[in-house]
């Protein structure tokens, strides 16, 4: 599975990729990468089919572990998905835009 840095992930989003946050709603409300769509890992297997296979996906979580599982799950089902190294912690540490609350 391919892993990308926060800046590489942001560039992929600029080019049309979906930024998919797989943390739980309370974590997402606390802070999330700007524009990220929430799909908690706890319900991921029931919801992933809502994602279009035509759009690349950058998967993000808090630190990169849960998103790696979700990205691999998507790859195994024919999706174009990458994992964002370091997750939201690295995204925010790099000074990339974040949002707080429900988006």
Describe this structure in words.
By secondary structure, the protein is α/β, with parallel strands linked by helices. Helix content is 37%, strand content 19%. The protein is built from five helices and seven strands. The chain has helices at 6-14, 25-30, 44-47, 65-76, 87-93, and strands spanning 3-4, 18-21, 32-33, 37-38, 57-60, 81-84, 98-99. It has a five-stranded parallel β-sheet with strand order 1-6-5-2-4. The longest helix is centred in the C-terminal third of the chain and has 12 residues, at 65-76.
SSE blueprint and pairings:
Blueprint: E1 3-4, H1 6-14, E2 18-21, H2 25-30, E3 32-33, E4 37-38, H3 44-47, E5 57-60, H4 65-76, E6 81-84, H5 87-93, E7 98-99
Parallel strand pairs: 1-6, 2-4, 2-5, 5-6
Antiparallel strand pairs: 3-7
**Content-based structural category:** alpha/beta
Helical proportion, percent range:
25-40%
Mean model confidence by pLDDT: 96
Number of helical stretches of at least 4 residues: 5
Between the first and last Cα atoms, what is the distance in angstroms?
28 Å
CA-based shape: globular
Radius of gyration: 12 Å
- Low-confidence stretches are none
Adjacency order of strands in the biggest sheet: 1-6-5-2-4
Order of helices and strands: EHEHEEHEHEHE
Report the major sheet. Answer: 5 strands, parallel
Beta-sheet strand percentage?
Answer: 15-25%
Number of strands: 7
Keywords:
single chain, 103 residues, alpha/beta, 5-stranded parallel beta sheet, two-stranded antiparallel sheet, 5 helices, 37% helix, globular
Write a short abstract of this structure.
This protein is α/β, with parallel strands linked by helices and 103 residues long. Helices cover 37% and strands 19% of the residues.
């Amino acid at each position: 599975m391919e892993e990308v840095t926060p800046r590489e992930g942001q560039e992929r989003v600029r080019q049309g990729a979906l930024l998919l946050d797989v943390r739980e709603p309370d974590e997402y409300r606390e802070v999330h990468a700007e524009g990220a769509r929430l799909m908690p890992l706890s319900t991921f297997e029931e919801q992933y089919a809502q994602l279009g296979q035509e759009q690349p996906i950058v998967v993000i979580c808090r630190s990169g572990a849960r998103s790696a599982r979700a990205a691999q799950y998507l790859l195994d089902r024919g999706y174009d998905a990458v994992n964002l190294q370091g997750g939201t912690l690295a995204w925010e540490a790099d000074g990339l835009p974040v949002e707080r609350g429900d988006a």
